[in-house]
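ok here's the first one, seq then struct tokens
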Amino acid sequence: MNRRLEGKVALVTGGARGIGAAIVRRLHAEGAAVAITDVLAEPGRALAAELGERAAFFAHDTTDEAAWVATIAAVTGAFGGLQIVVNNAGVFKPGAIADTSVADVEWQFRVNQLGVFLGMKHAQLPLRAAGGGCIVNISSIAGQLGFPGAAAYVGTKWAVRGMTKTAALELAPVQIRVNSVHPGFIDTPMLDNNPPEANQAGIEATPLKRIGKPEEIAAAVAFLVGPDAGFVTGAELTVDGGWIL
């Protein structure tokens, strides 16, 4: 595989499984040293052990501002810097507005929205020190249209889309590019939260008539953080098999 990211250090939140783990593997394969951060310690450590050199796991609650400060300090201390940050950690709990508790709304807000905000706030410091870098925020097609039964989740993903564009404008003067990726129906543990009929409906609504693979999202992220995307910032890269066409 092309080692376009040789010499770069990447931090991937929610990197222990699913889309996050696929992103970790892809960036590592392209030459980056990768910090895997997650609240899931066992699979995170196992992935780091599998990859071996240039990979390490860091326990990290992305909703905690102090944890962001400590994790970035640990990552830069271990690898000597930081040039790439992928805010991937996310949660989903379906529910109609009338049936969704405030606790469920706050949980999704804290992980999906606040966690991304804190990542951009604190990651920009080492990226500035490196003379520039890349931030990729994982949103969703739920950040581009509405989905009945998912108002809390949809709200957070629209917020990620808007924060990404704002950060792209703020950070362009210091050569930090900020983009968002918008997956459609992807084969991850998150789909386990849906009833089977909802997942089947998702396949039927996708023109390519299949569920996407985590590796296909990882490829999109690898493009955005690589040299071929050097003039791309504030963009939304939708990877959904044609869902929102």
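and now the second one, same deal
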Amino acid sequence: MRTFCLEVGGPFACFTRPEMKVERVSYDVITPSAARAVFEAILWKPAIRWQIRKIEVLKPIRWINLRRNEVASIISGSKVKTAMNKGSGDLGIFIEEERQQRAGLFLRDVCYRLHADFDMLDNTPANNPVKFSEMFRRRAEKGQCFNQPYLGTREFAADFKLIDKNEPLIQALEETRELGWMLYDMDFSDPDNPTPRFFQARMHSGVIDIPDWYSDEVKG
């Protein structure tokens, strides 16, 4: 299976630690789930599942404290279903009544190289892996995406560039550190009860190797 490499970056990022319930605190680096979302923003098909293989950190890990306005509630799923069935309904949120300020510890000036390939979930003749590989390559080269990729939260948009294997590359960050337990992704094998899965992340000379989804290193 062909492996693709994207260079992504932006002025701010927040890959929120799930144990932080009120304040937003980011992991030190991008998570596999956030990296997967970047690839899916360029090409998503029901027949494939992206697998992140390696993350390279290209810039020093820097932090910034920010305060943001958020809403305290969301529209309930039952109200949405009712509105869909009736053809109308009140789905508005009055921001002034629901507004709240929250502090956050975010990353700033980030840049990563993400290496990924995809597994086939549907091997019917119409779903050809070569076809999907070429579709992704063409879209990534042209900067096309179904939705704007982002760095953890949607307000932190990500720039991306497809990396050719023959072009000279920026050296990864010369730093080694233990990153601790990191969110790998959500397990949706039970759609009614999705569960988080974690792995022990370690950065060696700026490189984080990501275990396979089915590996014993992934706990959940």
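notes on #2: Residues 4-69+100-209 form a domain with the Alpha-Beta Plaits fold (CATH 3.30.70.2660). The chain has one domain: 4-69+100-209.
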